[in-house]
Amino acid sequence: MSLFNWKKNLQKLKNLFVVNSFTQDKTFSLSSSRKPYQRKVTLTREYHPTNKEKTELPTESASIQSALAPLFYATINPDFVTRQLKTPCGQVSIFYYQSLVDSQQVQDAIVEPLVTLTEDCNQIAWEDLKDLLTYSHVVTEVYTLEDAAAHISAGRLFIHVEGFAIGLAVKAGTRESRAVESPKTETVIRGSNDAFVEEIRTNLYLLRMRLSIPEFIAEPVEQPHRSQERLYVLYIEGLTSPKLVQEMRRRLKSIDVDMLYSIGNLENYIQGRPLSIFSQAITTERPDRTISHLLEGSVAVMMQGSPQALLMPVTFWSQLHSPEDYYFRWPIGSFARLIRVFALIIAIFFTRYLYCCRQLSS
């Protein structure tokens, strides 16, 4: 019996430090009752439906809009933009992510030529229309709804003209407000060298370029206080627990202050146990670390004007993890975590013990 208990305790110790592969089982502690929330997460939609039969592009713009709107969760994800233009050539629909596209380029190079068009569609060939829409842009023809969704997720505009069973994917990159720099506090040897900035659209750009799936939601949360900072709740639909997202919305909306100065100030208002000596969230400036936690079922909170993201919920052992652990093989990453734990124990207990022994010996 003692041998069995020894093996069981060893397995528990191993689970604390071993870098496991991605699993859909996640224990959440962020709930209104302050009790752990256990849920078997089930994906509701496949991210890459390459094994499915693709759907041909309809000729009606309304049918395309009704198909893409629920796919990108347009009702709760205002980052996804749909524009309808009435031109002499017919109705033109444009679909894109606002954070991934330069709106000025869209207006100058695509909207203006379409609005000023004088020829009828019956008198203009598709190739001429394609040249008109894609002046000084990289263009790809799209024939299916799945390809259209993939291009939108990758940061391109999808353009459809009423009456044509074909669309265009146009590259129109956004302009960042400040140059993306290397992380100041979370430097690593292996891994990416970009960090968040103060502009929320640039931060969403960095995240969406890594996680190009329509299930990635950046949901804004309205604030009742005076300054009305732009807060965003980031999660993956179908992977993150709905109760966790709902609880995060509730906590953010319950904040009643005149102004939020930073993401650290926000953490003080939404943490579950204010008197706890342990941190209940992780603050990071790295997009890759944010994506890693989102893929594990966590929720991230970002704020306009703050170059950091708040990751919740977390455990005590999460504080000992490094962003570089994800870039190593699991034996090396697990060994590095063990070293950190032993170093923490030595720093807390043995340093004082050695000091007392030295004083007694002298």
TrEMBL record:
Source species, domain of life: Bacteria
Keyword Transmembrane helix: yes
Annotated InterPro entries: Spore_Ger (IPR004995), UPF0353/GerABKA_families (IPR050768)
Record keywords, A-Z: Membrane, Transmembrane, Transmembrane helix
Transmembrane segments: 338-355
One GO cellular component term: membrane
UniProt GO BP: spore germination
Signal peptide annotation: none
Record-stated family: Belongs to the GerABKA family.
UniProt protein name: Spore germination protein
